[in-house]
Specification:
- There is one protein chain.
- By secondary structure, this protein is mainly alpha-helical.
- It has one domain (about 1-425).
- It contains 15 helices and two strands.
- The protein has helices spanning about 1-30, 35-55, 75-95, 105-110, 115-135, 145-170, 175-205, 230-235, 260-275, 280-290, 295-320, 325-345, 350-380, 390-420, 420-425; strands spanning about 240-245, 255.
- A two-stranded antiparallel ribbon has the order 1-2.
- Strand 1 (about 240-245) and strand 2 form a beta hairpin.
- It starts with a helix and ends with a helix.
Length: about 425
């Protein structure tokens, strides 16, 4: 059991690293293009002007009011917070080489954004960045087209189911929706945070010198060693149609029923739509440990599915129902472009072990944030008895803890960047 959880953590981190590498390449591609920089500037002007024009207490119902489907007040302050959130997530992605998207939805909820709106906005932010910056990625040459097609079919089904559940819970009770999303993040961030801290303490005590990206390789080579048992049984099934893949690695390739691949895609799409993430952290362990796909093929398919899954989820499950704050998505996009570049450069002048320590602490801060918000949500739904003053204090503790920890990390990274800017210029 313990080894299984450890393998799951390693594979999630491997998937997160693969996504972070893609995220950095997308960010670099956007910033290196003059046309795309001008497009960002033109998109930002009306958003900034609109944020000032709409500031105040009397806001239209569909733009930040509590009526209809835009249940979070919109102010210039919240827009500024979205930029800072994007910067912090970008710093984590660039520094650690592992995705910082896990903190975006909890951070937006802490800033007063309803959970379902945070999920939809995060998905749209992922999709917008992919559309603006995606290049023909070399890893996409590793994708088995039949494998990708059936996986994406299942993913779209799962996304639809996840979106329906999120919207249904919101229609029943917006507080129930927030509670559900918070519980999902408490479980995920608790698992990742504990293992990240244990990993950091183990490495620090051993005195091992590691880079910022230390751990399982982005291609999950160590994880791939577990391709026995379940994968062998699934590949032995003869349920038509069968998909052939990994022909470049195994003579004649491997075969597996398309049903299993589509089912795996449905699970990934479901979780992506529920949590507002790309779903890559689930794709990797499922492909490697369940389906027995090589990590070489998994990385390319993972990146491909993130683009389609996030786009389909953002547009069909959230945008058309009014559950996306486009201005916040724009703020996060602007912030993350800057944060990723600063984070990636800073890894050249700091020891990786300290960055990993900050990463583990940031994940735990997100866990504490959502955990401390739960009592108040449960009290609002009359599930537990708790005074409003106590629930407010707990929520404030969770919020302050989260933003202070992430803020310290951001300040540390940025200060390291500017104090070593001459050295970095010399390397450039």
């Amino acid at each position: 059991m313990k080894q299984g959880l450890r393998n799951l953590y390693n594979s999630i981190m491997a998937a997160s690293m693969a996504h972070a590498k893609w995220d950095l390449e997308v960010s670099t591609n956007i910033l290196q293009s003059r046309k795309k920089r001008w497009l960002l500037a033109l998109m930002s002007v009306p958003i900034l002007l609109g944020s000032l024009a709409l500031a105040g207490d009397s806001l239209p119902g569909m733009i930040g009011g509590k009526e209809a489907y835009a249940p979070a007040f919109y102010t210039p302050f919240i827009f500024g917070v979205s930029i800072l959130i994007g910067v912090c997530a970008g710093l984590i992605t660039g520094c650690i080489g592992a995705g910082g998207g896990f903190i975006i939805t909890p951070a937006l909820m802490s800033a007063g954004i309803k959970g379902i709106l945070a999920v939809g906005t995060d998905l749209f932010h992922i999709f917008a960045k992919a559309i603006m910056g995606t290049v023909i990625h070399k890893k996409l040459g590793n994708v088995s087209v039949p494998l990708a097609i059936y996986f994406l079919v299942g993913s779209l089904v799962g996304v639809t189911g996840g979106g329906v559940i999120n919207r249904t819970l919101y229609e029943i009770n917006p507080v129930l929706s927030d509670t559900f999303i918070s519980v999902v993040y408490v479980v995920l961030l608790g698992f990742l945070g504990i293992y990240s801290l244990v990993d950091f303490i183990r490495l620090k005590n051993s005195g091992t010198e590691v880079g910022a990206h230390h751990g399982e390789s982005p291609h999950g080579e160590q994880a791939a060693s577990g391709k026995q048992g379940l994968p062998a049984r699934l590949q032995a099934a003869k349920i038509p149609p069968l998909i052939t893949f990994d022909q470049d690695l195994v003579p004649g390739g491997k075969r597996i029923p398309a049903l299993f691949v589509a089912g795996s895609g449905a699970i990934v799409g479901f979780m992506a739509a529920i949590m507002g993430v790309g779903g890559g952290f689930i794709t990797f362990p499922i492909f490697v440990y369940v389906l027995g796909v090589s990590s070489f093929t998994t990385v390319g398919t993972d990146i491909l599915q993130i683009i389609f899954t996030a786009g389909y989820a953002a547009i069909t499950q959230y945008a058309i129902y009014g559950f996306i704050f486009y201005t916040l998505a724009m703020g996060m996009l602007l912030g993350s472009l800057i944060g990723i570049q600063l984070g990636a450069l800073t890894t050249k002048v700091v020891q990786g072990i300290y960055i990993r320590g900050f990463y583990a602490t940031a994940i735990m801060a997100g866990f504490v944030n959502r955990l401390f918000a739960l009592p108040g949500k449960l009290a609002e739904m009359k599930i537990i008895s708790l005074s409003s003053s106590v629930s407010a204090v707990l929520t404030s503790i969770g919020n302050w803890t989260f933003f202070i920890v992430v803020g310290i990390f951001a300040f540390w990274v940025i200060s390291k960047f500017f104090t070593n800017i001459k050295l970095l210029r010399g390397e450039a």
